[in-house]
Amino acid sequence: MKFEEIIKKRKSVRKFKSKTPSWKDILYAIDLANQGPFAGNQNHLHYIIVEDHNTIKALAQLCEQHWVADAKIIIVACSDDTHLENLYGERGRIYSRQQAGAAIHTLTLALTERRIDSCWVGSYSDELVREKLKIPQHIQVEAIIPIGFEAGKSKKPAKKSLERCLSWETWTQTRRPTMFEEGHEDYPPFRG
Q1: Separation in Å, CA 92 to CA 16, 95, 100, 189
Q2: Cβ pair 126, 104 in contact under 8 A
Q3: Which of 40, 93, 129, 159 gets the most CB atoms within 10 Å of its CB?
Q4: Rounded to whole angstroms, how far apart are CA atoms 42 and 172?
């Protein structure tokens, strides 16, 4: 699949078939997520692969989203901010969130490339997930990612148009300045 196709095909799937994805494809996706950019080149991420059905059901309850229990595998993305905070102070925490988001996005795209569906879940009880999966207190739970193969076909919702999410030079300028607009440094275009 071409990159553009992968981006457009990726969607949040909340209903899974009983077929289980290959763990080799899961490792492939995680490995690609680890190739992304990291502040100071410090990869602070850790992934927990959950295959046990009872644990998956428990995580679904902690997310308060019953459909999560239908996933055959869940990936729990975690991060350790300690080293980044030591390097960059308070900004280290911000870098950590940014890096985790980029890696999770790469992970979901890599799964899509392998024709595996997923959903990025961010609503759960951090403390209870830590307790259930024996995650140390200083580790952040970044996302719970149920994965599998979509049951049925859901339509991908329309995304915000490019025009509605762009500004030029300042927040309030919605059109790109041209050299023919008054006030632009090149106006008028020819001086004679």
Answers
A1: 37, 5, 12, 46
A2: no
A3: 129
A4: 36
Token pair recorded at residue 162: 């490019």
CA-nearest of 139, 122, 121 to 130 is 139
Q: Exposure pattern of 74-108 as b/e (b: 16+ CB <10 Å)?
A: bbbbbbbbeebbeebeeebeebbeebbeebbebbb
Burial 111-150 (b: 16+ CB within 10 A, else e): bbbbebbbbbbeebeeeebbebbebeeebbbbbbbbbbeb
Q: Give the domains, in start order, of the chain with CATH numbers.
A: 14-151 (3.40.109.10)
- Per the CB < 8 A criterion, the answer to whether 72 and 21 are in contact is yes
Distance from C-alpha of 87 to C-alpha of 157, rounded to nearest angstrom: 40
> Helices in the chain by DSSP H: which ranges?
3-9, 23-33, 53-63, 82-88, 91-113, 126-133
Could you tell me the maximum CA-CA distance found in the chain, to the nearest angstrom? 80
Residue 91 one-letter amino acid: R
Tell me the C-alpha to C-alpha distance, in Å, between residue 31 and each of 72, 75, 148: 20, 13, 18
How many other CB atoms are found less than 10 A from the CB of residue 110?
22
pTM: 0.84
- Residue 70 has a CB neighbour count (10 Å cut-off) of 18
